[in-house]
Amino acid sequence: MTDLRSAPIGVFDSGAGGISVLKRLWALMPNEQYLYFGDSANAPYGTRPLETIRDLTVAAVEHLLDAGCKAIVLACNTATSAAAAELREAHPDVPIIGLEPALKPAALFGDHPTVVVMATPLTLREAKFQALADRFADRCELIRLPAPELVTLVEQNKMGTPELWAYLEDLFAPLDKDSIDCLVLGCTHFPFARRELRAILGSRPVFFDGAVGEAKYTAVVLESRGLRAPDNAVGAIRFESSDPEKLPLLEQLFSFDL
Questions:
Q1: CB atoms within 10 A of CB 68
Q2: Tens of pLDDT along 118-147?
Q3: What are the φ/ψ torsions at residue 23 (nearest 5 degrees)?
Q4: What positions carry a catalytic annotation?
């Protein structure tokens, strides 16, 4: 019988953004095998129809399962919103860990904070996020901020460029930046613009993203199912992309200081 403990953890994102989750997983469980698949040929997902996103996500996850992955980490808020429920129903024996914007810890930070949630348009309009927003409506002042072009800029490796700076400055121009208490990075691509966001917004906002929580929850789920790799196992990461030209970017972002 195959020992699933030595099988890889599949990590999926619409492109390169999920590397921010992979980095957290690796820091927490460096003795695991990981297979990262980024669908950069079809990125960004957040501006596509829901049915298209669902089909692309299901196809990507089937690819990872065919490669022998013991668990799937959806390192993408948009893919989670579109397809997590369907995937769990189709694969009840496989841990499928989803991601959602870290609104809860932001809403509970301080006394009725002003919380800006940056995310893709689909994430912000889906019922899953609306239900989350409704839960904490009386605990914070919530501002939704769609930022679809930021995904594209990260996919194009534009971190630190004038183009990225200009986009972010225009994005936040209508807001009172001095009143923002919390910024939720509701897409896994967005942490790669953390330095630019901090420079534009100043020191006041506390940044939140769901990557750390998702990594911790993945470890708990694997442990509860007896799927954690042995402590003496040697970990490794394999990168795959639907756009082979993006493979160097995946490796570069893995070394990016978040």
A1: 14
A2: 998 888 988 889 999 999 999 999 999 999
A3: -60, -40
A4: 76, 187
